[in-house]
Here is the input.
Amino acid sequence: MRLTQRAALWLVRSVILAAIAYVLMVAALIPRQGQADGKGALVWPVALVVVTALAGAFFLKNRIQAVLAGSVLAMAVVIIPLEWYFGTASQRLRRAHERRALLPVLRTSEGDIYPLHAPWDFAFGRKWLTSRGAPLLPLGGLSNRLTGLCAVDGAELVFTSDEHGFRNPSGSHGAGDADLVLIGDSFAQGYCVEEARSVAGLLRSRYPRTVNLGATGAGPLWELGTLREYGAALRPAVVVWLFFEGNDLMSLDVEAGGLTGSYLAPGFSQGLRARQPEIDSALLARADSMARSLSQPSADRLRRLVLLKEIRARLQLNLRPPEGRATKPAGVASNLQSLTAVLQLARQEVDRWDGELLFVYLPDFQRHSRDPLRPSGKDTSVARDGRESVLAAARAAGMELLDMTPAFSALPDPLLLWDRGQDHYNKFGYRLVGDSILARLPRWLATDRTLAGAHPGIGRRPDEWIQMGGSRPWIRQTLIPQTTQARPAK
Here is the structure.
């Protein structure tokens, strides 16, 4: 065999060997932990089939080997630039999310600020961690940490989390130690307003033993799990469940499957109250991993390129469903059926200690928008049209109802109750909701419980706005504390 033929054959076989090595590397690198659909179990069998087929090419004629190597090179020439293009197009959006989660690597004169733990961090319950051999889906957050809630005009609103990562005074989770428990998403958590101006803060001003279990981004299944894991031990006289028409009904699509779906089984629990050290360890490790990714963007970009993450996402070949999106969107009827089951289970939980459950329906911005051309970035028409069905489901579950829609509609300009982003209420919107809830509570609670004693942490460090110094790089920025609790100057 001539030298040029040997070199050509060596090159052909090198390409095939490189393809085998690439398949094995991808199989080893693709994450499979905590998946709801079991596709991860297929990774190595599929990889071994492909490797066996490629290795079998060495026993074929040289011409066939050359055709195979040429096909592999052709695919690489097409796929790699395409993946790079898609990766560049999506990098800005991905970085926008990571910038919100970069806080653990920032330092302030007041201490480290940690990220707000939210359901989207775990694909709304469809992926999870493993701790001590058992699945772990944190529904709370990092305990007793300075936590970043939101950013406005270059300033960050921070609060000190309680012993389970929620926005409460430390010591709020004593067994049987609550008058009120607030369940919901960002509207319950009080997104982007100081605590005193949030719904929980307003309730706490009258009933000091109020515990806020709200989590930004939570949907009904996540909230049911939170009630079972944390609310049940508190045995509150009243549970206030906030339902936002803008996305709560649609969230049931996203939350389908995974550990969140397990809460539809009566009695299912992860025992999260007793696993806080595990939760803290897992979330700190995750924050450190993200910090390393942000500090080494080139390595992260290369890893995504090797795994063809963007192309697989567009072809729906990712092992995990995209975060924030349902694998198979359900119809309104199916979501209403799921909501009915969730609310009935919530009612059963509260009945265990003879508590009351108040269901509060919160209207969306688009319901009151007078401009049909105003861009909203989301379709809430289905949620709005299902209002009566949602209220009927709550009524059938035996809940007391408080529909805030008439109160909002009665105002000359309801749009003034929303923040500038049109996603959440401002302090006036929260005030209207809080006052309306307070007007209903005397049915079950004494009209004034302020002398009944407060939690030990009631005098903790208050919320504050921390002003960012100049631009906001992705790592290791020193912040300048702003001691006033007033909203940053516009």
In short: The radius of gyration is 26 Å. The longest helix spans residues 62-100.
